Amino acid sequence: MIFSVFQYLKALADPVGRFRTLGVPRVVPAGSFRTGNDAVVFRVVSGGRTMMLKCYLRPPQAIEARCACSQRTPLTAYCRWLDRELTIDDDAGGTTEVGVTVGEWIEGRTLADEILDAVVERDAERLARLSAEFDRLALALLGQEWAHGDLKPENIVCSPNGMRLIDIDSIYTPELAGLTTTQLGTEGYRHPSRTESDFDRHLDDYPIALISTTLAALALDYDLYRRNDRGDGVLIDPSEAVAGTSAIVAEIERLFARAGDAAHTVILNSLLTPTHHIDGLHEELQQAVEGVPDADNLELAPRGGRWGYTDTQGCWVIQPVYRSAFDFREGYAAVQLGDVWQYIDRHARQKMICAEASAIKSVRNGRARLLIDGEWVEREIDEN
């Protein structure tokens, strides 16, 4: 059965006797609501408590399991399913009892609103903070057995206690393994090949990589938003990225190269993956959030036409993202990230950018060696 926003507005305008357990909820501010494709959400006060009341336009899928998942994690708003809670007037002149979701109302603004304000105000520091905070949230989310299923800036609230997820109606949880879903997530953030049978804990991989890349890039150049916004804050079209035809992917790669941001370069390149599952994304985000751990005797190693560094056990310490690279000498390695030569330290931090050089060599006696206009020159290491 399908219900309308009008039916719920009518019920909430005169709620006396309509609720089984919630008393007489009052919409705050009066008459306000937020609607999506499948539900309408009200901010209500009942029994002195402010809460979220979600009323469905069509029956929700597996909502009890999804509410149970929200109750086990601090990453999402806490929700409960109340079956046959609300009585609404039906089209036949009678009444119908419908279930609703109630839960925690998280005070704050959505990440989408925060991004837009920061861009309008040309606030690079604020964008950098949002980028770092989102990466921390994403790293925590990738460590879970469940996935949100419709991850996008509009479904992330920036609260005083950090970023939290809202809208649990697309969650994958292990109890639902083996099922399919018609809720594929928002088109501008999901992998273009995702189908109803792609329903597992990797649903958030692609939107995480997309949002992480977008925020890190905007922190370096907020005008990217003005030049490339496709609506809803989407800068990179997933279909174009996967097809290898996205001009902005190349532009962002150059930005990251100049900034020496190897971690987000790897995350950016993962947007070209042919499936919704991004192998190694957790490790890439961990490097973005926590940096590269201490390790002695780093060894230069290739993978997939790129170079990185492993420890003595062969485990990657610095991901293979460099076009060219040399062994570490005197604490520095000469590498080429994108088209930009630079020196990095053992934590993959850019220590000296050599944008004017066509090639560089390993440090010798504390001095950088650069090929500029066909001649080799030596310079003191100038840490950025």
Give the arrangement of secondary structure elements:
Layout lengths: L4 H9 L12 E2 L6 E2 L3 E8 L2 E8 L6 H8 L8 E11 L5 E10 L4 E2 H10 L3 H19 L13 E4 L2 E4 L39 H16 L2 H6 L9 H6 L3 H13 L2 H8 L11 H10 L8 E5 L2 E5 L5 E7 L1 E2 L7 E5 L2 E5 L5 E4 L5 E6 L2 E6 L2 E6 L4
Antiparallel strand pairs: 1-3, 2-3, 3-4, 4-6, 5-6, 7-8, 8-9, 10-11, 11-12, 13-14, 14-15, 15-16, 17-18, 18-19
Helix pairs in contact: 3-4, 4-5, 4-10, 5-8, 5-9, 8-9, 9-10
Q: What labels would you give this structure?
A:
single chain, 384 residues, alpha+beta, Phosphorylase Kinase, domain 1, Transferase(Phosphotransferase), domain 1, Thrombin, subunit H, 3 domains, 10 helices, elongated
Sum this structure up briefly.
This protein is α+β, with helices and mostly antiparallel strands. Helix content is 27%, strand content 27%.
Order of helices and strands: HEEEEHEEEHHEEHHHHHHEEEEEEEEEE
The CATH topology of the largest domain comes to Transferase(Phosphotransferase), domain 1
**Which residues sit in consecutive blocks of at least 5 with pLDDT less than 50?**
none
CATH-scheme architecture of the largest domain: Orthogonal Bundle
- Separate helix tally: 10
Query: How many beta strands in the DSSP annotation?
Result: 19
Strand composition percent: 25-35%
Mean pLDDT: 93
Helix content: 25-40%
CATH homology group of the largest domain: Transferase(Phosphotransferase) domain 1
Number of domains: 3
For the record, the CATH class of the largest domain is Mainly Alpha
Q: What is the straight-line distance between the termini?
A: 62 Å
What is the overall silhouette?
elongated
